[in-house]
Design a protein that fits this description.
It comes from Sphaeramia orbicularis. This is Exocyst complex component. Among the domains are: 20-85, no CATH class; 599-777, no CATH class. The protein is mainly α. It contains 29 helices and two strands. It has a two-stranded antiparallel ribbon with strand order 1-2. The longest helix is centred in the first third of the chain and has 107 residues, at 61-167. α3 packs parallel to α5 (61-167), α15 runs parallel beside α19 (494-522) and α28 (728-745) packs antiparallel against α29 (753-777).
Length: 778
Amino acid sequence: MTHWSARLSPAQLNSEPARATCRMASVEAAAEHERILREIESTDTNCIGPTLRSVYDGQEHGLFMEKLDARIRNHDREIEKMCNHHFQGFVDSITELLKVRGEAQKLKSQVTETNRRLQDDGKELLNSMEELKQCRVQQRNIATTIDKLTHCLPVLEMYSRLQEQMRAKRYYPALRTLEQLEQTCLPRAGQYRFCSIMAENIPKLRTQIRDTAMSQLRDFLESIRKHSDKIGETAIKQVHMQERTPKKEAAAGAGTDGGSPLSEQDSGILDVEDEEEEEEDVSRAQDLVDFSPVYRCLHIYTVLGLRDARLVLQPHSNMHETLEGYRRYFNQIVGFFVVEDHVLHTTQSLVNRAYVEELWETHSSYCDDPDLVLDLKNLIVLFADTLQGYGFPVSQLFDMLLEMREQYGEILLKKWNITFRYWWTSDNYSPIPVSSEQEYRHYTSQFPLQDPELEKLPFPKKLPFSEFVPKVYCQLKEFIYACLKYSEDLHLSSTEVDDMIRKSTNLLLSRTLSHCLQYAIKKKNVGLAELVQVIINTTHLEHCCHFLEEFISNITNVPPDTVNATKLYGTSTFKDARHAAEAEIYTSLNAKIDQFLQLADYDWTAPVQGGGTLAPSDYLTDLIAFLRSTFSVFTNLPGKVAQTACMSACKHISTSLMQLLLDPEVRQISMGAMHQLNTDIKELEPCVFTMHRSVLVFQLLDLFTQWDWSAYLADYGKPSCKYLRVNPHTALALLEKMRETGRKNNVFAQFRKTDRDRQKLIDTIIKQLRNLITQHQS
C-alpha cells in the first residue's frame, strides 16, 4: 500500500477506480506470497536462494515477512498438538524400558555364573587334549625319522664303500658306485647338508679318477719311450720273417701261412711265430710293454663319457704355436706307430684312421700365421710321403690338406684385410706426383698404367690415382703367389690349381677388398675430394682386372678362355665401390647444401622495393663459393658422374627452396619476398641451374614475379605450356599466403583503389585455380 500511495495523488486515492486498483494489487501480492511460501516448504533448502531473492527484489517484503511469521506460528501449533497427542505413549514406553533393564541385569548375572562353571569344568579336558596333541606330534616325528633314516643309511653305507674303493685304487668299481650314488641314492635321501656335500664332491672324485687314470697312461707312454728301441727291433724282425716265409715254403714245400706283420692277429707286436729263439726274443719284447693302463683308462673314460678323447698320443696344448711343436708330434706318431696299431686292433675305436684329420680340426683353428700353416703343410706332405714309401695309404692325408686349404685361405683373407685397411687409412687421397722418368717407370712397373696422353706430358706431372692403387695391385699379386705356394706338391693338375687360385682371389675381391672399400666410403668425416679420388682409384683398378686374369694364366699355364674356367669378380667389385662412392658424393653434397640453406633468413613480409637492384642473400654468396670450388674438383671425374652431381645439387636446392615457400609455419608471403627469392635463384643460375627452365622453383617464381596468370590458366595441361611443372595446388597455396599478407598488412587497403583491385585479382585467380583443380580431378 505504501508503494501505490507513493505513486497516486490524494484525489486519485479517494476515487473508486483507484481503490479497486489497490485491492487488485494487494490480492496479487498475497497470491504471489502464498506461492513463494509453498515453494519454500516443498523445495530443497539448497535451491531456495532464487526464491528469496525474488521476494527482496519486490516492494512487498514487509508483508511477506508478516505472512511468513504467521505460517511459522501455525506450524508450531501443529507440532505442539502432535507432541501432546503422543506424550502418554512415550511415558508408557519409558516405564516398560525401566522394567526390562532390571530383568536384563538378572539374566547377565546368570550367564556370567554359568560361564564360570563351564570354564572350571573344561580345564581338565583342555589339559588332556594338549597332552594328546604332543603325543601325536612325537609319533609323527618318529615315523618321519625312521623313513628318512631308511633312505639316508644306504647313502652313508655307499659313500663309505666308495671311500674304501678309492683307498684301494679300485677306480672302475668306484665309478660305478659314484654313478649309483648320484642317480639313485642321493635323490631318494632328500635335501640334507651331508647330501649336498656328497653331491659337490662327486665331480671332484670323478676328476681325481680321470687324472689318476691319465697319469697311469702317461707312465705307460713313458715306458714306451724307454723301450721303443726294443719294440722297433722286434718289428724289424717281423718284417724280416715275412720276407723269409715264402722262401721257406718254396724250399720245404710246406709251412705255416705268414700273416701280415701289421695284421689284426699279430697287431704289430704280439704272437710272432718263427724259430724258437726269435719267438723268445719277441716274447721278451712283448713283456716290456704292459697295456693294462690303456685298457683301464679306456674303461674309465667310457664310463665318464669322454670316449672321444685321444689317449695314446695326447698333443701338447701349445702345439699350434710353432712348427717345431707339430714336428715333434709327427715324430711321436712315427715312433709309436706300432703301439697305435696294437691298440687299434685290441680296442674298439680308441684310435682310428681319422685321427690325424681330427687333430688338425682341433688345433689348426688356433693358427693365425699363414707362414706357419704353409710350413705345416710342407711337413705333412713330407710325413705322408714317408708313410707312403713304407706302403701305407695316405690319400686321406692329402684330402685333409685340401680341407686345410680353406683354413689357409681364411687366414690369408684376415691378413690381407689388415693390409688393405692399413694402406687405405694411410693414403693421402691425392694424385701421385712424379718428377722424373725413373720415378714414372717405378710406378708403372707396379701398376699397368696405359695412358698415351699422360706419357706425352712433360715432367713434373701427376698420375691420376693415389698411392693406394699400385699398392693394392701389388698386394693382389702377392695374394695370388701365396695361394700358389700352398698348391705346390699336392699332386693337383694345372686346371685344379688355376681354379683354386681364382676362387680364392674372388673371395679376396668380393669379400675382403669390397668390405674395406665400403668401410672407407661410409666412414665419417670423408670429404668430397677424398670421395672423388676413390672413384678415380676404383676406375683404374677396374681397368686392370684383365691384367690379373693374364697374370694367373701365366703362372698356372692355363689359358683364360678355357672351358669352365672361373672368371674374376674384380670388375663388379670395383664398379660397386665406385657406385657407392658416387652415391656418397651426392649425399654429402646435399648435406653440405642443407647446412648453407639452414642459414637462410627471408623476410616473408618484406615490401616491394621501389627502385634499384636487389642484392643476393648472404648465405647464397657462401653457397655459390662452395659449389664453385666443389665443381672444380669434379673436373677429374667422368663427365656423367660430374653431370649427375650437378643435377643432384640443382634438384636438391630446388626442392629445399620449394619447402621454404610451402612451409606451414610461413603463413604470409609478400611480393617483396618473392622478388628476393627470385634474385637468389638468378644468382645461382650460372652455377647450378644450367637447365633452369625445367626447374620447378624457377618456373614458379617466373609465374609470380611476372604475374603471367592468363598464360598459365590458358595453357595449363598443354605440352607447350611455359609453366608446365607448376602444379595448381602449389600455386593456390602460395596465392592464399599472399592474400593473407594483403589482408593483415594493408590496414588501409580499402582506401586505396590499387590495393583493392589487386586483392580482387588475387581472389579471382584463386577461384579460377580451384575451378581448374576441380575440372582435372573430375
